[in-house]
Amino acid sequence: MVKQLQHITHQVFRAIALPALLLLAACGKDAPLPEPVPPMLPDPPEPPQPPVMEDVVRVPLRLFALPEGNDPEVWLPTDTLHLVLTKPGGCVALGDTAFYRYNCTAGAGNAECFAPSSSADSAFMPADSCRVDLLAYYPASSALLCDRLHLPVDTRELTALGHPLMTASRITGLCVVQPEARPIFVHRLARLRVTLNLIETKADANSTKTVLAGTTLTLYGNPAEAVWSLPDEAFVEYGDTLPQTFKMQPDGTGGYLYTLPGMPGELTLSVLIPDRAPISVPLNGYLTDGLLETGISIDIRIEIPSEVDPTPDDPEPDEPDIPDEPDPDTPDDPGSDDPDPDDPPPAKAPSKSRSL
What global pTM score does this model have? Predict the structure, then answer.
């Protein structure tokens, strides 16, 4: 009985399964084959990102400058200092730092404070905290030789501009945590200041009144050009002696001249007044060891007769065979204060001062 049931079940399964298989085969012939699936590629790696740098804060130089002396002159807003940064003890400019110009900010109420003349003139401390030195001088000049830090000096130009040469000693140890410098500027030239004083004399009917307007003063016997070394803080080269003309007051009553100190030679002051014979004043006797001293102002006062007797154009000819008789000398009245108009008095001994 069991075997008959198994046989019947087997027959029923074949009757159902065979048509189903035939149907699947027919469907498989008509359906397209599936497209091959390409292999999955890995995602490309992210490009490396530059490290995020924190903003570097640039530390500017803070400059406070004073002239030497207990009662120094006040800087003017037009006064421009020239600054140079070097390595510690260096004798050449650090990079392109030989062109920093700083002006006095007197208008801001602080006569000692200086600020960059422009944004390009701003000096900054090295970002790596290295220490640097500061060299400075006045007035600023584009003639500075950056490879040696030598400054050509022409006293005639400085006199015409009205600016004396001043320099400061090397400031060391400047860095990002110590960016403040307080240099003291020292005069490196000597100044001659001459005053012409007209004195009353006995006027002759034909005498002429002395007019000082147009007077010129000239120094002879001293070099006008030299080279100042910022690292050495000294003049290292001198030029030839050249005439140096004073900067005169409009009325001709005086003038001044900046000139090089410390050079031996015969110094002579020439006074040329219109329609007058030149007056020559030797200066060596008035100077210490015959030399001009650095940072010294020498005041010289020269007295000029107010009236001058005319000199005849055609002297009286000699009579033949008759010797000339000398004119009797007429000495000045000892009790009179009037000098001989033909013999102007010498210059008074100059006074000296430290302020230029």
Answer: 0.71
